[in-house]
Structures are given as structure tokens and as C-alpha cells.
């Protein structure tokens, strides 16, 4: 303790303690560094601070050592160089819009896109002077014919998060690059484990860390990952201007889950495939929409570009069942909860009215679609639960 410190009032010494953190303590957990204000050693350091430099700490909202530990790992998983965290997957999507496009720009979006992305884009088109057009997700290299001089951004999603068509990502990315159009992919489905879009020519990968990265159904977080310094800076500037960030506590929970993500993903993948095969053989089911199945649109691209599928797939029920019967089936399930946000240990089921969600491409099925998320329960119990609910609701 210095002389001046020892003469201070007790209250001041509570605010300015003379505590040394125990040297020699080590553990596997990442320290939680909460911060609003980041403290600078002197004013020269304040004036030299450059927001572009990820190695400098400026403000708790922008980054802390805890968030940096997470962004570094996310960039590694996807084979990128930079990552930014946002408070939800949707805000990561929003960050892409506000970082990359301005009024008058044109944006192309796959018709099977995650619905809140469509809602966001339509809002920007209606109120902020953006041109927004939807394309058939199976368009492949044909996207070149849709690119206009003012096209700035092309979104991709692989596969579509409800209907599971797998686009030809390298073909779309190449057509975009040839015309200097930025590509962003919603890569939440594969968690960056089973598909690495940056290696297929995509500029920005978006993750809802809410899903597999969290793994506990208790965190909301998103990320943008890129290998381009220029795009990283554009996203980072927009993120600062909008004033979004994440808590170190939430980052530490995601960091705790990340080492087990691959093992969990593989378990989800195995169980989902088992349930999908079981459903395929059932007379109640008209189609199983799983990218690993040969009749899934884009199956060839899936086989070429992906290493696994994870826990998510959909089925289309035979058209003889009414939407009310399918609702009764979903409500009769005991092990599958009704909810949207997947990626945790618990299985989920949700019916969707796909025809009302599209504007550009034809939806070929007439029966009701139910999306399943297969959690970490025992496979045989899940199949038995579905069989029981079918018997109860569908006769
Ligand atoms: C869940 C999800 C999001 C959004 O994530 P939130 O954290 O819930 O905002 C975006 N895209 C896809 C494909 C998702 O499944």
C-alpha cells in the first residue's frame, strides 16, 4: 500500500482497493471481464485509439477480453479472420444490412430465407429506400441474370431453415464475385462445423449462436464472420453506430459450450437421420425434407459441400390430413416441445404454412409441413413418441 492510499477514507478504499489478484491461479474457464468503461493509462492512449484495431480496447460495448476469446474461436471454426458478436442471430443479420447496404442499393434474397430476415428486408425496402428482390434458392449460376448495376448484397441460406433446399453456394458466390457483389450466408444450420462457406467464396458468414454454440437454450447471441478486413470494418462501424454489444457473462456461457459443440452436433445428426428414416417409411408422411436424402432439392450440393446435417429437418404430411389434425399431432407429442429456437438438448416440433411464406418460387407440396429439431434424447423414445402422437391425432 502506498502512503497516500493508506491515508484515504474507508469508502474510497472500497472503490480503489489495494488488492492483488492471486498469481499462480489457473483454470480452464475464460475469465468474465465485465466492462462498460475501458480505462486508458493516459490521454495519449485515448487519442491514439483506433476503432479499426481489434487489438485495442476502447469501450465495453465494443469488445472485452471475454468477447475476444469467443470471436477468435468463431473465426477459427469458420476459417475466417474476423468475427463480431451481436445480441441475437437476427441482430447479426441486421448488422449485415446496416454495414453493407445504403438507400438505392439492390439486395437479392433466397425465397426460403429465415422469415425474420425477409421481414427485416421488406422493412428496409418500404421505409429506407432499398430495392429487395427474392430468388428461387435453386437458381445456382443463374443468379448472374438477376444481378443489376446497383446490386450490392446477395443473401444465401444453406439449407433453407424450414424447407431444406440446399443451394449451389459456390456457383452463386462466384457469380456475385464476378460482379463485385458482397455475399452473406446464414450458416446457422451447420454451426460452421459441417459447412465452411468462406472456403466456397462467400464473404460473410452469419451465425445464430443462440443455437448449437449456446447449446443450452438459454442464450441469445449472433455473430458475423469474415476473412475480409474491409468488410469486417464496415460491419464493425455499423455495429458501433447502432450501439449493440453482448455481455461478458453470456460470452462465457457460450465459451463453456463450444468445446462440446462438435460432439453434440454429431449426436444430433445421427438421431435426426434415424428419425427421418423412420418417418420416411410411415404412410402418414408424403415427403421427408432432409438434405442427406436423395430426393431433397440440392442433395448433390449437400453431398459435395457438407460433412453432416445436424438435428434439423422437416416432413410434409399426406394432404389427407387437415391443418387442424396436424396441430393435434404436434400438441400430442410429449418429448417434442413447441418452440422455435433449436440447438439445445430438447427436441422440438413446429408446423408451418409454407405457401404463405414465399413470393418467388413454387412450393410443390400440398400437405402440412412440420419441422423437427432432434435433441439429445434417446432415439427409440423419440420414434415411439411420434408413433403414439400419430395414432392419437391422425387415427
Ligand atoms: C434462430 C435463427 C436465427 C436467429 O437467431 P436469434 O438469435 O433467435 O435471433 C437466424 N437464422 C436462422 C437460420 C435461425 O435458425
From TrEMBL:
Q: Which organism does this sequence originate in?
A: Trinickia soli
For this entry, the protein name equals Cystathionine beta-lyase
Q: Name one Pfam family in it.
A: Cys_Met_Meta_PP
A molecular function GO annotation: cysteine-S-conjugate beta-lyase activity
Give the UniProt family note: Belongs to the trans-sulfuration enzymes family.
One of the GO BP terms on file: L-cysteine catabolic process to pyruvate
Q: Tell me the organism's taxonomic lineage.
A: Bacteria, Pseudomonadati, Pseudomonadota, Betaproteobacteria, Burkholderiales
Q: Which NCBIfam families match?
A: cysta_beta_ly_B (TIGR01324), PRK07050.1 (NF005456)
Kindly list the positions at which N6-(pyridoxal phosphate)lysine occurs in this protein.
Answer: 211
Its UniProt entry gives the catalysed reaction(s) as: L,L-cystathionine + H2O = L-homocysteine + pyruvate + NH4(+)
Its needed co-factors are: pyridoxal 5'-phosphate
Q: Does the keyword Lyase apply?
A: yes
Keywords per UniProt: Lyase, Pyridoxal phosphate
